[in-house]
Amino acid sequence: MSTRMAAGRPEDKAEKVLRVLVAIPAYGEEKSIGGIVSSLRRKLPYDVVVVNDGSLDGTSSQARGAGAITLDLPCNLGIGGALQTAYIFARDHGYDALVRIDADGQHEVEDIPRVLEPVLRGQADAVIGSRFLGENEYRVSIPRIFGIRFFRWLVRWNTGYRVTDPTSGFFAVNRRLIEFYSRNYPSDYPEVDAYILMHRLKARATEVPVRMYERAEGKSSITTFRAMYYMVKVTLSFFVNRIRRFG
Amino acid sequence: MNRITVLAVLASGILLLYILEMVRRRRLREEYSILWLAGGVIMLVFSLKRDWLEWVAGAVGIYYPPSFLFLIGMLFILLILIHFSITISRLYQMNKKIAQELALLKHGNPPPEPIREQEPDRLERRTG
After folding, report:
1. Contacts of A71 in chain B (CB under 8 A)
2. Does A246 touch chain B (CB under 8 A)?
3. What ipTM does this complex have?
């Protein structure tokens, strides 16, 4: 990691190599994390940071063994809190872009360049990978499609972003958003809220199609029992973020 | 003094003494004792001065004066609970920051140089 870091320093002015960090928040994903990290390291020239959100299983050691930088939170903060740790890391270590993927193997590592491209070219501040764009065989349950439609409408009505996959956990952001998110980011269920934050920053956001697989291991963080809480909490914090002041 | 007055005076007096003792022993911070003390003092005054209580209750249209005491008690409990919710939220923010800093510190490798074009962090207090 340190060699690549040195290579990305401002000294080489001729052609600035953009430094990318792949961030994976993980909680109890010891079975899948190792494979994801090693495939990332094999296929892409980017640093990988795994933020272990307080799990005591082998998540951290598996990730480290596969070549990731690991940040171990002493207690469980939720996906947003874990992800914010990665934003702070990216900010302090001078990364130009950050890509987030899930630890459970739902996202296709090979789609990362496609998600990154508009950010690296300076065409967008944020790019979100959508499982509903392009041809995709991802099957969504009926209650879930209801929730997704609701959030689509919520986001479009309040921010004007025409999103197809508002809860997607596969996205890339540029330096500007890294810096903002390192200071302001929701603690849990951050994806929908992020649209309000981007709207407040007048950020340019776009979607690209990505493949999405059924979960390889473990359970989704959103179980049926939590669905109602999820809807209420996200909707509430969405509206609060509209009228909030940010540091 | 009838029995209910004695009881009310005793209850609010004990509450006040207990809160003061906790503050004296540093088991309770001053800032958290203010609401308790204010509530206790008001309860004590209205328990002793029955005619004040009757006047205020009449002024706001309450026919049975002691129920005004319940109202005051409830309002103070409400205020104290809101105060606690705010405090818990602030503690959560601090806790989150500490956990994040700790994770970053444990990794070692401090930032090569502070890369901060923007003004320093204002997150600590302002944003919730």
Report:
1. 103-104, 106-107
2. yes
3. 0.79
